[in-house]
Write a structure and sequence with these properties.
Shape: elongated
Strand content: under 5%
Distance between the termini: 68 Å
Order of helices and strands: HHHHHHHHHH
Number of strands: 0
Radius of gyration: 19 Å
Largest sheet: none
Structural class: mainly alpha
Length: 198
């Protein structure tokens, strides 16, 4: 009976190797040969999945961004209360990365940011929060204001964009060791308190 190959699992294994090399040596330290060695596979396997180093790096970074987005979706799904304000706070706090896996993903995005200046495809992968998430967050902001009895003031999508920009910046600060998770959470909460107040 022929062996069943899990191609997605193999690609993820190679992506993990790219992440490890990037965090240890910078993106310039990532080569097809080094990824093969780090993943414990042959060069032939790496070349089977990726024609070029650039394709491999972009896929690995795309997987990291999707993993970060998955953390946000999970935080929304697991929000402790049914109220909109709890969902909003938990959603944004997911980017503060208090655990090792979250820290690793954010550090990775910081490590590749410089390369994005000369690589439009990589820059697209690292693009800010997408419109769908901004729309969702704007709706949650409006709902949280209604729950508090705060009059609507319009511009919730812009408020959502500001919230995500702040949360992402604070997440980077945490990943770089410039702030603790608690310090970052206090800043985020202070902003949200003002945003949702009359």
């Amino acid at each position: 009976m022929p062996k069943i190959v899990d191609h997605e699992q193999r690609r993820q294994r190679l992506a993990e190797a790219v992440w490890t090399l990037t965090l240890g040596h910078g993106l310039e330290g990532v080569t097809l040969r080094k990824v093969a060695a780090e993943a414990g596979v042959s060069m032939g396997m790496v070349q089977h999945y990726y024609d070029t180093r650039a394709d491999m790096v972009r896929d690995a970074i795309d997987r990291a961004i999707r993993a970060l987005n998955g953390r946000i979706e999970s935080a929304v799904a697991q929000a402790a209360g049914p109220d909109a304000e709890t969902i909003l706070r938990e959603c944004l706090r997911a980017v503060l990365a208090g655990d090792e896996e979250g820290l690793r993903l954010i550090r990775l995005s910081v490590a590749v940011a410089a390369q994005a200046f000369s690589d439009p495809a990589l820059a697209a992968v690292l693009a800010p929060v997408d419109g769908e998430l901004l729309d969702f967050t704007g709706e949650i902001i409006d709902a949280a204001r209604r729950e508090r009895g705060t009059p609507g003031r319009g511009g919730a999508r812009i408020d959502a964009d500001i919230c995500w920009s702040l949360a992402t910046g604070l997440g980077v600060d945490v990943a770089l060791g410039h702030r603790t998770v608690d310090e970052a959470a206090r800043i985020l909460d202070h902003h949200l308190d003002g945003l949702l107040s009359a």
